[in-house]
Amino acid sequence: MAHDDPHALDRTYQAPAGLSVDVSDPALNPGLPPHRARVTDQDPKAMKAAVRTVYTLFYLSLAGSIWAVAAYMLFPIESGSLIDVRYNNLFIGLGIALALLALGIGAIHWSKAIMADHEHVEYRHPTRGRDSTRAAAIQAFADANEESGFGRRVMIRNSLIAAVVASVVPGLALFRGLAPQDTPENPIAGQPVKLLQHTMWEKGMRLAHDPDGTPIRAADITIGSAVHVIPEPLGKVAHEDGYLEEKAKAIVLLMRLLPEQLIESEERKSWSYNGIVAYSKVCTHVGCPVALYEQQTHHLLCPCHQSQFDVTEHAKVIFGPAARPLPQLPITVDDEGYLVAQSDFHEPVGPSFWERH
C-alpha cells in the first residue's frame, strides 16, 4: 500500500516477546526474508568457475554464428543440388540455434551466479525529474555496473559483446539469397526488371484453373466470380526446376462484371471479353499475392499491406502503399469458346521499386 513517508517501509515490526502477530495484515511490513548467500558468494573458486562458464558460453555462441555463415557458403543453395539444400538448412539452423541458445544460457547463468543478488526495496515517488532524482538514476547505473561486474569482468564483457554482434551476422548473410547473381546459364538472374518484363503468357495460350490446368470457358464464368488462373501449359508439366518461378510471374486473377460496369480506356477496350477481365495477382507494392475480391465493391485487396485496386477501372490503386495498377492481361476467346491470352503483359509484373534505377 502507498505511504506518504517512504521510510515507513523501512520500519520492521518487532512484536513483544511471547506475542503472536499476524504478519499477513496488509497494514504491517513483514520486512525482507533472510538473505541466502550463494555458493559463488562464499567460495572464490566457485565464482571463478562461474565466470569461466559464462564467457565460454558467450564464445560458444560466437562460434555458432560463425559456423552458420560458413555453412551458408559451404552448401550454397544456388548449386541446385538437393543435398546442398538439405545441408544448408540443417547446418545453418544448428549454427543459429547454438548461437542463440548459448547466448541465452550464458546471460541467465551470469545473472544468477555472478551478479549481486541482494534484495532491496524500490520506493515509489510522487514526482520525478528533480536534480536528486537524476543523481539517483546516475548512481543506479553506476551501482548496476558495479554489481554486475560488467566494467570489471573484461572476459565476460568482451565475449558478450562479440557474441551479440555475431548473432546477427547469419541473418545478414542469408539476405544474400534474396539477390540472385547473374550466371552464364542465366545472364539476367540478378536483374529483376528484365526477369519480370516478360512471363510465359503468349498469344493464343489458354487460361486454365490453378492448379489442375483445366482450360476455362468464358460461358462458365459467372458474374461476380473470381477465378485463380495459370497458363494451361503449367498444369500439364511436373514441378520441374524453374516451375515455381514461372508460375509466380504468370499467376492471374480472372473476374466477371457486367460490361457496363467497366470503365475502360480506348486502347484497352479490346483487352476484356464480355465483362471478363484478367489481372496479375502479384501486388505492385512488394509482390504479395492479391487474392481477396470484394464482389459488391469490385475491389481487389492485398492482405499483406492492405493495398486496394479497383477492378472496374484497370485495377487502379485506390488505397494503400502500392504505386501503380495491377498489370492487365489482354484476353479473348478462341473458336471453341475457351478464354485465351492475346499476348503477354504489356508491362513488368511485380513490385514497382524494382523498376527504379
From TrEMBL:
The chain crosses the membrane at residues 54-75, 87-108, 160-179. Its main location: membrane. It is a multi-pass membrane protein. The keyword Nucleus does not apply. It holds the Pfam family Rieske. GO terms for molecular function: 2 iron, 2 sulfur cluster binding; metal ion binding; monooxygenase activity; oxidoreductase activity, acting on paired donors, with incorporation or reduction of molecular oxygen. Residues 249-340 form the Rieske domain. One of its GO terms (cellular component) is plasma membrane. InterPro entries: QcrA_N, Rieske_2Fe-2S, Rieske_2Fe-2S_sf, Rieske_Fe-S_prot, Rieske_Fe-S_prot_C. Keywords: 2Fe-2S, Cell membrane, Disulfide bond, Electron transport, Iron, Iron-sulfur, Membrane, Metal-binding, Oxidoreductase, Respiratory chain, Transmembrane, Transmembrane helix, Transport. It is found in: Cell membrane. Its cofactor is [2Fe-2S] cluster. Iron-sulfur subunit of the cytochrome bc1 complex, an essential component of the respiratory electron transport chain required for ATP synthesis. The bc1 complex catalyzes the oxidation of menaquinol and the reduction of cytochrome c in the respiratory chain. The bc1 complex operates through a Q-cycle mechanism that couples electron transfer to generation of the proton gradient that drives ATP synthesis. Belongs to the Rieske iron-sulfur protein family. This is Cytochrome bc1 complex Rieske iron-sulfur subunit. It comes from Microbacterium azadirachtae.
